[in-house]
Amino acid sequence: MGPLGALRAELEAGGEACATLDLGSGATLLVSARGGRVFGPFAGDDDPLGWWPEGEALRRTVLEGGWNLGGERIWLAPEALFNFTDPHRIVETYRVDPALDPARWRLERQGAALRLSLDARIALASGAATVGVRIERTIAPLAALPADAGVATAGYRQTVAVRQTAGPALPLVPWIIRQVAPGGVALLAASGPGVGMRIFGDPPETALARRAGLRRVDLSGPGFYKAAYHRDAIGRGTIGYVRAGGPSGDAVLYGPVQREASAYPEALPLDPAAVGQAASLFYDSGRFGAYGELELYGHRDPDGAGRLTVDCLRLRGDAAALEGTIARLAG
């Protein structure tokens, strides 16, 4: 049994509702009501780019109600309101409210799409209050896909909306987090020469360099860090991940629908005066489980809702052709 079958079997054995979404070209998503997770896209039964705990670790996470199921999840930003109490001791004071994750989302089909929704009251990290939120997500196959010789492409669009239903008014936006297996290279397509910022740990210089164009950050070997990027750093660029093995390779690219910097209320924890955060990279070679994360933050619409629309492309093929496709799509 490959990763898709094993993952679904473990979730269903734990009583968790799941559904698959056919993306065409042999690609499939697995969506779980537990934690509102999106896993994949799988190519057949295989997903070398994804990360989730395997075997007994996955079984224990499901049975014990742990949040770290891997895959792709939605949390809330600004992160400082919900996940830590001290910006200078983020790791030591970090928390995840189980009302948000691993909450059980409502999972239903809507035509060719899947829809996840959650109504919850989430505690602020300070303990001062709770806020009511409604999160709605639609995951639908992409009808039009880029075509390059030697590269197989599948994709989906995820549309997320967050509305506050109770509590003190806050500038909430959705925060999408995609976990990836270690051993590859994260991609940041920067349209301007903005600099990345260290949040914690020891990010490599490639994660912090002031450089326009396609940045590449190695997510392999020893390391534990998070780096974040404001709108002036990545502009309207793409965030992604690529792994190559011999003559072939795999990649995932996230192309967000962006807004002006003022529509991004998230601020970097160590620089609260600088608003407009749009992306982050996280890497852990073993402290909490060996994986990396690609993170994107939503924007605020004039009607007060927090929104995020992201097109995700899964690319497989000849390594040289794959590099050319990445350069074209992320450039």
From TrEMBL:
Name by which UniProt lists this protein: DUF4380 domain-containing protein
Source organism of this protein record: Prosthecomicrobium pneumaticum
